Amino acid sequence: MIKKCLFPVAGYGTRFLPATKSMPKEMLPIVNKPLIEFGVEEALAAGMDRMAFVTGRGKRAIEDHFDKNYELEDQIQGTAKEQALAPIRELIDKCEFSYTRQKEMAGLGNAILTGETLIGDEAFGVVLADDLCVNDGEGVLAQMAKLYKQFRCSIVAIEEVPAEDTNKYGIICGEEIKAGVYRVTDMVEKPEPEDAPSNLAIIGRYILTPDIFDILRTTPAGKNGEVQITDALLQQAKDGCVMALKFKGNRFDCGSLDGFVAATNHVYGRYQKKTP
Ligand code: G1P
């Protein structure tokens, strides 16, 4: 039912310098698959087949990744190596890709607003590729899409984090209406532990209703002088409804070195299990 998924991919990835000096951070591989490909697979598994990217300078490799590479493909045609391209070929066949550029780095809220031209007037998913979610059952976005069908309002994915980490995330609090499902009453972007309303952190998966764009247009710069999606969502929660879902699965913060290494080990372990 939700067809489009937005990928804000304009960020610099300074925590991974020098690797990200001339390469998009979203192209960093977890074993042999770029982070962004995991995100696109998760969106497709949730029924979203229109992938919309908000890019910036130096991000061409992402566009090239979701396109044919005639020379390479010609070279390996008919060899065993061709098999390695099967998953990305399937994605390219099944999805449509569109791109627009963010004019300035003015925060996640601004990046999402920039995507309005690709999304239009419909509910959509958002994937922050830095947050890698892997699990055996239903993907996180698919779990959220189910909840959307029921509530028809914006949804954020949440998990519990240690109290000292609240200043790395948007933090929500709300009324738990059934196991793992909260009606959001407050949300704060990266509060210090003493100011945090809970330890329930938003991870990089959202389903947003299109009225978010009008709210974002008038949302003033917040934390770190940037337009924050968390502030716009709080407005939606106050005016109507925003739900938060404690998702099932593993999530790795691949924007940090520790998370990246943990994700690599986890995914490598999964590969080994599949290989007899
Ligand atoms: C963004 C959001 C934050 C959220 C986080 C999830 O922050 O602003 O609310 O918790 O993504 O990864 P960023 O990590 O881009 O600083």
Automatic annotation (TrEMBL):
Keywords: Nucleotidyltransferase, Transferase. One of its GO terms (molecular function) is UTP:glucose-1-phosphate uridylyltransferase activity. Residues 10-266 form the Nucleotidyl transferase domain. InterPro entries: GalU_uridylyltTrfase_bac/arc, NTP_transferase_dom, Nucleotide-diphossugar_trans. The keyword Transferase applies. It holds the Pfam family NTP_transferase. It comes from the Bacteria. The keyword Cell membrane does not apply. Its EC number is 2.7.7.9. PANTHER family: UTP--GLUCOSE-1-PHOSPHATE URIDYLYLTRANSFERASE (PTHR43197). Belongs to the UDPGP type 2 family. This is UTP--glucose-1-phosphate uridylyltransferase. The gene is galU.
